[in-house]
Amino acid sequence: MSQNGQYPLPLIMMRELADNVATPLFLVDRDGVLVYYNEAAEVVLGLRWVEAGSLTAEEWSARWAAEDVDGNPLPADARPIAVAMKEHRPSHRAMILFGADGARRTIEVTAFPLLARADEVVGAVAIFWDSAGGT
Amino acid sequence: MRARIWGCRGSLASPGPDTVRAGGNTSCVELRTETGDLIILDAGTGLRALGLHLADEAPRTVHLLLSHLHLDHLEGLGFFGPLFDPKVEFHFWGPPSPVTSLKDRIARYLSPPLFPVNISDVPSNPIFHDVPTEEFQIGSARILGAPVSHSGPTVGYRISENGRTLAYLPDHEPVRGGDLREMSPGWISGYAIARDADVLMHDSQYTEAEYPSRVGWGHSSIAHVVTYAQITGVKSLLLFHHDPLHDDDALDRKLVRAIELWGDGDGSPALAVEGMQLELN
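YS: structure for the whole thing
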């Protein structure tokens, strides 16, 4: 959560956007805690949001294991959303994601930080692209 | 803390025989703290009459809190006497922008050709503050300003003094096309501003019939504002920012609908009208 029992407005607006697009969106707060993903992302992650719920960065990295395209384990801090948070810049890479449904999916991930002010990162959003085509 | 409404019309001033009861001036609310500080919420056309009212008092310090910089919240500024008094310490507070300073954004209006005087040349030599992320203090009042959902950078204000709180959200669309009741409070825009306030002045621009064709315009329907007030647990709701196309009779009908939606809970909504005074003691 955040100050005063309310999420920062950029997170609120991004969640509202996520609810109204068919693009898979995955949203974390300033601490890297997973706070939401939309229906389209549920398909990629193999798990409904209501079943996953809020997870710390450590928890969601473990829940959805990832490898690079050569099959090497992808550490949590090398994932685009972690890079976006840490370096305050967009990040993109292809990866293999192991869904909670047991499926192995080759996807591309684009992540970017959400800045409420020029020096204040309040979270980040990741977009999943199905490398086989479409989202 | 005392409050007096000098303008509660939305979007465009709309004086005339059909709006005399609610008034036609755009957003402006005067607040007086117990320590006598003068805080003004927004600089709509109501600010002109407030300036005339203040002429004898000649305040030495003015804090103008702008919710955002749409013209209906700014256009009274050039006609507000204290801004042109060199003895006045004039503080502007407003939403931050990642691109342009508050002064430069205000100057887009307060400069030629839209206005004959440039903001840099006004005698009070004003001081500009981006609303901070943390609470700040003006006299005996604690103030929280936080971004809320509207069109462009916009903040709502929560002003508290001696355990009483006024929340001011004149332009606000808390959800765009969804159902507020299905959302947890932490995901609702402005929740931290309005929560448990004694008085909430809130955007009530549209009827439920009008809203579907205006989704995303940054304003609330009557159903939105009533639901929002109940979710945030406010004690008293003032319907604010009246649509310029809604005459007094239309506002009365909106109030009837708001009371109907409110149900049997404590209190009931009321219409903000020019000249209304509130005591929060």
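YS: worth flagging: The first helix of chain A runs from residue 9 to 18.
IM: good catch. Also Chain A is about 25% helix and 35% strand.
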